[in-house]
Each structure stands twice: as structure tokens, then as C-alpha cells.
């Protein structure tokens, strides 16, 4: 019985992480290949997405927003004005969420918050931190 509980806990932990698509990982590789966007210590993502640490307890690299800007730009999530394109973002990021059917609502709410910034990198960082609250 004890081993069944442990197995269930491990399975729940593994399932409670975002699912990255091939496209997302290809874009990640593109951004990591450029020194301006590369994040050498990827533990920031493990702490936020897997360990679910509060943002206030995580040390962010100085280029974190730039990295997210690279990611979201290469995924095609911005229009020519630098605003998040809700339907594209919802479709491309839905596998991150515990309930993918809620992706349009999540992206709409977070896009509204993030689009208040005029800086693409800052918008990207704000958007990521907002949608992070809904990650699986």
C-alpha cells in the first residue's frame, strides 16, 4: 500500500508539469544559441514550473525577459505592434496548462496585463509570469 501511494505521488508530480511541444523546444534551442538570450542556468524554469516556487524566491538571470521575448517572438505570438495575438498564443501554449480548454481565457487575461508594457521583452516576462500561475 505504501509503495502504491509513493508511485501515485511520483506520477502526480510528473503529470503536474507543462508539456512542451516540439515547436517550443526548437524555438528554445534557437534562443539558447544566441548569447543575448541564452540562459546558462536553466534551474530558474525548474524552480518556477516544476518545484512551483514563488516568484519572490527565485533568482532570475538579467536576460530573463529578453529570453522570453526571443521565445514568444519566434513562436509568432506578437502582432506588428508588439501585442500578444490571443488566439495564436492560446493555441501554441495550451499544452502548458492543467486544463488546455481554458487557454483562451488565461491568455486573454494575461495578455491584457502584459500588453500594458511598451517593451517587448518586458511584455514577454510579464506574460510568462502571469500564465505561470496556470501551468500544470
TrEMBL record:
InterPro entries in the cross-refs: PBP/GOBP, PBP_GOBP_sf
Keyword Coiled coil on entry: no
Keywords assigned by UniProt, alphabetized: Signal
A Pfam family: PBP_GOBP
Gene Ontology MF term list: odorant binding
Secretion signal span: 1-16
Family matches, as CDD domains: PBP_GOBP
Protein name: Odorant binding protein 31
Source lineage: Eukaryota, Metazoa, Ecdysozoa, Arthropoda, Hexapoda
Gene it is expressed from: OBP31
